[in-house]
Specification:
Shape: globular
Mean pLDDT: 86
Radius of gyration: 27 Å
Strand order of the largest sheet: 1-2-3
Order of helices and strands: HHHHHHHHHHHHHHHEEHHHHEH
Structural class: mainly alpha
Number of strands: 3
Largest sheet: 3 strands, antiparallel
Length: about 525
């Protein structure tokens, strides 16, 4: 793919994301789902109204900024309500989230490109992210999860950019990585898992590096004996052969020196040399002091100063006390079952999307009837039109993505198990391919954002999976890219088929992402399982 077509593709993905997020943004002139908290909180900062916030305040600052800007724009005010505490148009408290969410597919594509320098991989990753439902829904309302994800992803992108640069440029990128990681945690505490993923991949890179910095003495001995036997045979053959043997030995030393440079973390990766070193291997160029400063002290500093405006507004609790109150609030939310909330869904239900949730559900007698915004729905059977906003991913994107993630895990395990079976010893390949490093990066970050929820006993919901599922999107994009680049026609056809199914599925479920009117039959057609309702 040429650079021109790559840019056209990225621009098209952004325009698609932007259009879907802004179309009919004022459709429901009310507060949808947790807008009853976050939109109000954003308005409270503008009206200087003290309040207790059960999360770090950054996302509410962003919503408040959007409300302030939107209130000074002379349009978007056809419909208004006072549900935030002031007379506001739904556009004013939703548009900033819609704009921010439109950039997430581009950031995912940028990470894919930085991991591989493959434009096709980047385009597919961006397209798949743009074709997901829960990201579309979360972007269209004044909610907070969009900010956790985009700041966490930006942290990873800046980290990958830093690995491709040296000296001042590297420091500059690492500073921005620390700032954005801190902003992710400053939105919700689970933003910390993005940062933990960065630390884990850095640790893995160093473990692999150290494993090959201490060669196996038995392997070294056998190599030396083999080289000595070849040299002896060459010397017996002819003087010319002996000279050739010495040349080969020099070349061998050169190759060993090159291998040592490879293991030392010297950047030799370039788009034109797929077998050269990946940017991720440059992680061993970052020492523990750099990691602690750029990805430790800076995020902690950013997180701390994020709290200053809130603590100045509400002086009930200090910095330490407010964190104690937040922790107490979450510990007392109750168990993870339907008795606490009908849409509680434990972490193991997220990957297969067995329990999505309705953010808004109302019925009407006809499409021409004014949209219902308040009060209970009509009695069963009376409503002929259903308005439903479902926080639900693209089913096939998620299911195919889980399969791709399992494939990557299997690929990594096989690289350890095969030598274990054949050679009866544990070993890791001395040189890992670009795709092996990509697999490590995706699996580690997916696990870092999912597994901490295993121990959480409070009621959690499917939107908590958003931080992990972006790496699932990257995994299926990687798999499709591999298929499309394959020599075999069947694999290329498989890649095209998967892409087609994902795009068609997105279009099919789009009415329940956008809250478009549906007949009861059309609604049931999209609710494949009872647990989805």
């Amino acid at each position: 793919m040429t650079k021109k077509w790559f840019r056209i593709g990225m621009l098209s993905i952004f325009i698609l994301s932007l259009a879907l997020r802004f179309w009919g943004l004022e459709r429901f002139n009310t507060l949808v789902f947790d807008e009853v908290y976050f939109a109000k909180f954003g308005n409270n900062y503008l009206t200087h109204t003290p309040f207790f916030n059960a999360h770090p305040p950054l996302s509410q600052y962003m919503i408040g900024i959007g409300i302030w800007i939107g209130s000074h724009i002379p349009f978007w005010h056809d419909t208004v309500n006072g549900l935030t505490g002031s007379m506001r148009s739904p556009w004013t408290y939703r548009w900033f989230n819609a704009l921010t969410g439109s950039f997430i597919p581009l950031v995912v594509a940028a990470i894919a490109y930085q991991l591989s320098y493959r434009r096709t991989f980047a385009i597919i990753a961006g397209l798949f992210t743009a074709c997901d439902g829960i990201f579309l829904v979360e972007s269209r309302y004044a909610l907070s999860n969009i900010y956790i994800v985009i700041f966490g992803l930006l942290g990873h992108w800046f980290l990958l950019l830093a690995l491709d640069n040296q000296n001042r440029q590297r420091s500059f990128c690492l500073v921005f990585a620390g700032i954005t990681f801190g902003a992710s945690v400053g939105t919700k505490w689970n933003g910390l898992w993005f940062l933990s993923g960065a630390y884990l991949i850095w640790i893995v890179a160093w473990v692999i590096h150290l494993m090959h910095s201490f060669p196996n003495p038995f392997t070294s001995l056998s190599l030396k004996e083999g080289r000595a036997r070849r040299q002896d045979s060459a010397a017996l053959a002819s003087p010319r052969a002996s000279a050739e043997g010495r040349i080969q030995e020099v070349e061998g030393v050169s190759q060993e020196s090159e291998a040592r440079s490879y293991e030392a973390g010297v950047s030799t990766y370039s788009p034109s040399s797929p077998s050269s070193q990946t940017p991720l291997q440059n992680l061993t160029q970052l020492n523990i002091f750099q990691m602690l400063f750029y990805l430790g002290i800076i995020p902690a500093f950013i997180y701390s100063i994020i709290w200053i405006p809130h603590l100045q507004l509400d002086k009930t609790y200090g910095f330490i006390a407010v964190h104690q109150q937040i922790l107490k609030f979450h510990l007392h939310l109750g168990g993870n079952n339907s008795d606490v909330h009908p849409y509680c869904a434990a972490w193991y239900k997220w990957p297969l999307m067995t329990r999505p949730m309705a953010y808004y559900y109302q019925t009407a007698e006809s499409i021409t009837e004014p949209l219902p915004v308040m009060g209970p729905p009509l009695p069963a059977g009376a409503g002929r039109v259903i308005y439903d906003v479902h926080a639900m991913g693209n089913p096939f994107l998620w299911w195919f993505g889980v399969a791709a993630m399992l494939f990557l895990i299997g690929m990594l395990v096989s690289q350890v198990v095969i030598p274990l079976v054949k050679e009866k010893r544990f070993s890791v390949p001395a040189t890992l391919s670009v795709d092996t490093w990509i697999a490590l990066y995706l699996v580690i970050n997916y696990a870092a954002n999912l597994l901490p929820w295993v121990k959480v006993t409070r009621c959690v919901f499917i939107y908590h999976y958003m931080c992990a599922v972006v790496f699932v999107f990257l995994a299926i994009a990687w798999f499709v890219d591999q298929c499309l680049r394959s020599y075999y026609q069947q694999l290329r056809a498989l890649g095209v088929t998967i892409t087609f199914i994902i795009v068609v599925a997105f279009i099919f479920w789009m009415p329940i992402y956008l809250g478009l009117p549906l007949s009861p039959d059309s609604y049931k057609l999209r609710m494949w399982f009872n647990s989805w309702i």
